[in-house]
């Protein structure tokens, strides 16, 4: 078998110019095969197309609305207003002086089965900008007229007097809390979830619907277009509107952007697996926009596992591990 030809051998039989040409060809050849190797490595490292099983996860997951988080300028004042005017219960309250904040959880039933509000007070901050994007919360009540009168009698502000909605039969009113947050009061029969809506404004309704369906496994329970008033709304959730809390997305014709302010913070929703849920959100944000703001994992010092992200309009959601959340509630007892 012939010995392989090396550059040393070539040097003895070729002229210098020829040798340079050979060396050049060797170099080009090596670069070519090195480049091919890099391409192969990149292709092998490329992310796989997400499986149908992964994208179906949000629909199979055990999810419900846990709480809405927002900031207030006087915690005790807001607690007093919500308990006396709305009839909510103070479920828990905690002060964290080392981090200079306190918060309180209020609702119409225990946190392990009801949607609640989480009020946050940051030491020394007595006012926030709600912005133009946040809309309102909603409370279902058997008698809107009576609730509105009770609120006024206790010093509260009714910004829209009770009565039927324009072009419909639903009876509603609007109240404003001490920090300027609006609460829609909806006349409705007995319901397992009186704290029944969170309304946010979005710039592209169809895109937002797709995002919440794919990333969070919600379903559209109602969609209404009001061309005479130039807006469209979509209600999304995990059960029918009468049975649970829903997210109301509002699109105002021609308006694609809103200010977020610094008052409203986020929605918290439960999940059985923050890691798998994070994978799904990562895929959906690449398709529709938004981004993960905190990778899946435990919160230092608390160990509750979460993953947080913003939707294409910048509205934040936190997915919270179901079992960790229940353990957190047990600690307060």
UniProtKB/TrEMBL annotation:
Its EC number is 4.4.1.5. GO terms for molecular function: lactoylglutathione lyase activity; metal ion binding. Catalyzes the conversion of hemimercaptal, formed from methylglyoxal and glutathione, to S-lactoylglutathione. This is lactoylglutathione lyase. Belongs to the glyoxalase I family. GO terms for biological process: methylglyoxal catabolic process to D-lactate via S-lactoyl-glutathione. Pathway: Secondary metabolite metabolism; methylglyoxal degradation; (R)-lactate from methylglyoxal: step 1/2. It comes from the Eukaryota. Its cofactor is Zn(2+). Zn(2+) binds at residues 118, 136, 184. The active site is at 184 (proton donor/acceptor). Keywords: Lyase, Metal-binding, Repeat, Zinc. InterPro entries: Glyas_Bleomycin-R_OHBP_Dase, Glyas_Fos-R_dOase_dom, Glyoxalase_1, Glyoxalase_1_CS, VOC_core. It comes from Coffea canephora (Robusta coffee). Residues 64-188, 194-322 form the VOC domain. It catalyses: (R)-S-lactoylglutathione = methylglyoxal + glutathione. CDD domains: GlxI_Ni. One of its GO terms (cellular component) is cytoplasm. The keyword Repeat applies. Binds 1 zinc ion per subunit. In the homodimer, two zinc ions are bound between subunits.
